[in-house]
Write a structure and sequence with these properties.
Order of helices and strands of chain A: HHHHHEEHHHHHHHHH
Radius of gyration of chain B: 22 Å
Helix content of chain B: 40-55%
CATH class of the largest domain in chain A: Mainly Alpha
Largest sheet of chain A: 2 strands, antiparallel
Largest sheet of chain B: 8 strands, mixed
Number of domains of chain A: 2
Order of helices and strands of chain B: HEHEHEHEEHHEHHEHEHEEHEHH
Strand order of the largest sheet of chain A: 1-2
Number of helices of chain A: 14
Distance between the termini of chain B: 55 Å
Radius of gyration of chain A: 27 Å
Number of strands of chain B: 11
Strand content of chain A: under 5%
Oligomer: heterodimer
CATH architecture of the largest domain in chain A: Orthogonal Bundle
Amino acid sequence: MTTAATAEMGAGPKPASRSFFARLLQGDQVAHAITFVAAATILLITTMLVVVLWNNSALPRAKFGLSFFIGRVWDPVSGQFGALPFVYGTLVTTAVSLVLGVPLGLGAAIFLAELAPPKISDSLTFVIELLAAVPSVIYGLLGIFLVVPFVRTTLAPALKHTLGFLPLFQGPCYGVSFLAAGLVLAIMIVPFIVSVSREVLLAVPTDQREAALSLGSTRWESTWKVVVPFALPGVLGSVFLAMARALGETMAVTMVVGNVPDIKASLLAPGYSIAAVIANEFTEATGDLYLQALIELGLVLFLVTFILNGLARLLILVTSQRGGTT
Amino acid sequence: MKKILTGLLVLGMVFVFAIAIAAQGQLTGAGATFPYPIYSKWFDVYSKMKNVQINYQSVGSGAGIRQVTAGTVDFGASDGPMTDEQIATFEKGRGTAIYHFPTVLGAVVPTYNIPGVNASLKFTQKAIADIYLGKITKWNDGEISKANPGVNLPGDDIVVVHRSDGSGTTYIFTDFLSKVSEEWKSKVGKNTSVNWPVGLGGKGNEGVSGLVQQTPDAIGYVELIYALQTKQPFGDVQNSSGAFVRASLETTTAAAAAAAKDMPADFRVSITNPSGKTAYPICSFTWLLIPGKIADAGKRETLKGFLRWMLAEGQKDTEALYYAPLPKQVVEQELKAISKIQ
């Protein structure tokens, strides 16, 4: 009796421990822990990034304060540093690339997801994903050998001739320019927009299309008025991914933008971008203030990306809500 | 599968061991990119000869100065001499002096692309300064045409090109401009990057020469070595005695010889625009930066041995790689200075 009792007692905790192991084997706890660590790491990396940039830019922050954002002079000799021309260049080249790249990318995605025969769609998608993996320096070379001469000899004269009354297309053009950088960036971001947008469009339930068609709409009406709006948050997501890439692109931009810290309204004028100036001047930066001013530019780029991504989030929120109510 | 994994693991361990062994008694240096080809040849030859390890990373002069100041490398290298401020920081941080040892010479040449002009152009000092100040804007400006009689210069706008990345080349070029133009000195100054009054930026020698070759009516500046290796046209520059001199290894060494007379004990000297009829005016030493006290006796002797070898045997390798060798006087001064390293 006693033996049985002890046996029972001994068996008591056993099922509990077994169930713990069982749960462990099932993986819930482990998966929870691992994914939590992964998520926490992302947050940690982001925090570390800001802390490192912040700590290493103490000198210019103390010296220039907020005027760093509106300063237009970048003079390593006299120690005058202002970020405005670089912020301007980053925003302009990114905007040009989005204006050119979004219609192209979205058009290609719609064709591949909705209209193209599957064989063509699959092989084209493969090519596009290949393009997304090409290193940016290669795109820079493409820019130097093709885009820059094309802009100088063909595109800029044509734009001046037809749209020259706009301040956007005035002044001399040497090829290297905001426009050339925007064009190269557009080529670089299109694969991102296409491959993500295509996936999102393909994920739209078939009954949405069938419902539209059954109501008498044409193929294009069902695509443009039903499928695309349904997928809009995802499509916007792809655009913002592309925007983030354009904002931070360094190598390809510096090869074609002209590297002149000027603020000019004309897209034909040469400019500069934040990422490009950091890459260009970091290794040979003489003096602590100079070096730290470059690091503070990194902080500014982080801030610009942060703000634009915040706005992007807001836009997605607004569009998806509107989609929900109608 | 398992076999492959074990194989990889073993390979990885061997690799780690190899690195650990190699790290023993190994000298590391970092800095200037301009002399990297000759440095890597020197270190390779010397390492094999003496069975020592010298590892050099061409991370840029600024980074080289920072790393040797922080003590993460045994020696640094720079295309521009350290400033008084940088030396003070070094002495405060490391408790010893830092010595400059010139190794080879580099020159910077103006390169251009003017459609229809094949002649080699001559540039007065004022012409170069005023082009880069944006005061001379057309190729047929009097300052350019008076030095080039018989050349049919077009009336087109000059497209000015400079380096966009921080570089010793820019330092030498702006140092020259600061010496020949008061206006440049007060408005712009000299550094590895400056606030350019006019012009487009190209990344590296290849970026500048690419922009110049692609853009009609452009002028830029590149290292002599780069111009020689890529066989591109470059102009003669007027020196302090008024003569127009074409850059070459001989005229570069001549500039150093002219400057050697007034060589300061610490070798921190700018030799742009020196005296001497045959001296090319836009050139500079490049330096190794060596701490005054090296605690590890093995490292110290290796480094001193290398310096002696570099000043004797090493100088013979320079011309094959298009670097101008040091003039004799400077070599002798440096040999004496080696004993200062303790």
